[in-house]
Amino acid sequence: MSTAPLLQINQVTKTFGGVFALNEVSLDLHEGEILGIIGPNGSGKTTLVNCITGFLELTAGEVLFRGKVISGKAAHKIADMGITRTFQIMRPYYSLPAYKNLVIPLFAPRARRTGGWRGGGKLGDRNTVSIDILEELGFERESFVPYKMASNLPTGYLKRLELARCLALNPEIIICDEVFSGLSMSEIASMVPLIERLQMEGITLIMIEHRLRELFRVANRIMVLNFGEKLMEGTAEEVMADEKVKEAYFGSEEVEEVMEHA
Amino acid sequence: MNANSEQRRRERLDRGIKVRSDGIYSLMSYRELCYLVLPRAVLITGMLILPLVVPTYWQKVVSYVCIYALLTLSFDFLAHFVGLVSLGGAFFVGTGGYFAAILNTVLGLPPLLSIPIATILGAFICTLLLLPCLPLRGVYFAIVTLMYPLLFTRVIEALNILGGTDGMVGVTNFTNHYFIIIMLLAFLFGIRRLVNQDLGLVLRAVKDNDQAVRASGMSITYYKTIAVFIGSVMGCLAGAYLAHVFEWAGLSSFALDFSILPIAATVIGGAGTLVGPVLGAFILVPLNEWLRDFGTLRIVIYALILLAFIVFRSEGIMVYGMRKYHQFEKWVKV
């Protein structure tokens, strides 16, 4: 590879007391790719996201973004550099309507600097921009979905709202923490093209998923975590063929199902 | 007839002048315009004619009410729009009061200069002192705001500075009801506007969900600092004016009353409505004054009223009133 990786994770270790949540995990993320991270429950996937985005401090190791160390910086500074994340447990502002939820990230320094998603460096009226972004993500303007209170929105819309909050910052990297979980098949079917479109627009994505079939369809590369350690890294086919992965997922029906389909 | 067939329930319908978005109304007639403007007009004119109609003895109470109303506004703003439960009424009043007294007696500034300078300076100091606990979540902010007044009274007492236990006497008298009423109205409508603007939305977001704000690339501490500054400006203004009304600033400027009464007024008025807590102060402070004849027994009456409100109308007067005003109600058969 000639180009340097966009994001480098070097020997990252995170302990909680004596428990190793992450043990010397290393990973390179290249510009424009979709990297999938899978692993059984408790294997450290979300901890890794928290470590990259500054929500947790690393015990050891470092994270580099465009060759510069970002580990140790405050979470909002890392987000300001363009590394955004969604939360596994959705965190909308429940007391506000959906479009006002987006006004908040659009108020952030990065959004003002970059003009927001597709803003071209100039940020228009925040209410208008937020409704435009929401419409792109499938909030039907005609049926007034963007005006509904976040507390009244179903899960599918809340997941999109999480993604919209990231997009409002015009990010370089989006880390999606289980955006497919809890969605119906048809909702996922409408999310997949969205993810693919984001990739075509040049956004690099890390996707943490339990829905392996959908993940294997969109991801260019897969990393497998197990008990905080990196088990392997490779294409979907390589991961599916790997004995160690099968062992880690032993009994998991979905893997076998996926493998049968493959 | 059996009881079942007569079961009815109350149906509530919103009046149709509110558009989906906040702060935009569709008005079709003068009647609807009146409906919208009247409560605001009543509030403003009511406050403005208040000093003209009250008897002489109650004149001074008008100023106290406004002072407490400012503190209540500060509490409601911080607690319900930023998520910081502040017990700092006493802290703000004390800081503002002492600053006004120093500026007035030592530097000889007239009240119209000492009050604004003490307000800004005091708010600056309060914010600076509260800064260390702003990155923390939870009850720490409440504890620290309560701790500072205790600390300052002991320091002033022990070191015998700033007049010691006697306080700072000889502050120029400045009792102008209209000054404080207009300040109160300005802050009331200013804060109401602020919380619906983009900056206010971010502050509300900090309360709702601070992690998501961090994930959006904004420093929570920075926005909390702005909010605490706004809150302490209101508190210090109240304190600075109070020093000029009392012609004195002393240890009782740090009295716990300034922290507790705003909370009670917020409970009575309706938390999170901003107007409600101000009305709460307009009820509680005169009541306090009126019950003075009962001596210490007034605390009992006071407590009973509070208890009754918490048990029977915990939403507060304003929320209840707004519901009655904004919605049609009718009984429909089930």
One letter per element, helices H and strands E, the order of chain B comes to EHHHHHEHHHHEHHHHE
CA gyration radius of chain B, whole angstroms: 22 Å
Quickly count the helices of chain A: 11
The major beta sheet of chain A can be summarized as:
6 strands, mixed
* Total domains of chain B: 1
Oligomerization: heterodimer
Structural class designation of chain B: mainly alpha
Beta-strand proportion of chain B: 5-15%
Structural class of chain A comes to alpha/beta
Radius of gyration of chain A: 18 Å
The rounded distance between the terminal residues' Cα atoms of chain B is 15 Å
Outline the fold blueprint.
The complex is a heterodimer of chains A (262) and B (334).
Chain A: E1 7-16, E2 19-29, E3 34-38, H1 45-52, E4 60-65, E5 68-69, H2 75-81, E6 83-85, H3 98-107, H4 109-114, H5 126-136, H6 155-167, E7 173-177, H7 185-200, E8 204-208, H8 212-218, E9 221-226, E10 229-234, H9 236-241, H10 243-248, H11 253-261
Parallel strand pairs in A: 3-8, 3-9, 6-7, 7-8
Antiparallel strand pairs in A: 1-2, 1-4, 4-5, 9-10
Helix pairs in contact in A: 3-5, 3-6
Chain B: E1 8-14, H1 30-53, H2 56-82, H3 89-106, H4 111-130, H5 140-159, E2 168-169, H6 177-194, H7 198-208, H8 210-215, H9 220-246, E3 248-249, H10 257-269, H11 275-290, H12 297-312, H13 317-326, E4 327-333
Antiparallel strand pairs in B: 1-4, 2-3
Q: How would you characterize the overall build of this protein?
A:
- The complex is a heterodimer of chains A (262) and B (334).
- Chain A has 262 residues and is an alpha/beta fold.
- Chain A has a domain at 1-74 and 203-262: Rossmann fold.
- In chain A, 38% of the residues lie in helices and 23% in strands.
- The longest helix of chain A is centred in the C-terminal third of the chain and has 16 residues, at 185-200.
- The radius of gyration of chain A is 18 Å and the shape is globular.
- The model of chain A has no long low-confidence stretch (mean pLDDT 86).
- A two-stranded antiparallel ribbon of chain B has the order 1-4. In chain B, strands 2-3 form a two-stranded antiparallel sheet.
- Chain B has helices spanning 30-53, 56-82, 89-106, 111-130, 140-159, 177-194, 198-208, 210-215, 220-246, 257-269, 275-290, 297-312, 317-326; strands spanning 8-14, 168-169, 248-249, 327-333.
- Helices cover 68% and strands 5% of the residues of chain B.
- In chain B, helix 3 packs parallel to helix 5 and helix 10 (257-269) crosses helix 11 (275-290).
- Chain B is globular and about 75 Å long.
- The two termini of chain B are 15 Å apart.
- Chain B has a single domain, classed as ABC transporter involved in vitamin B12 uptake, BtuC, CATH 1.10.3470.
- Chains A and B meet through helix 2, helix 3 and helix 4 of A and helix 7 and helix 8 of B.
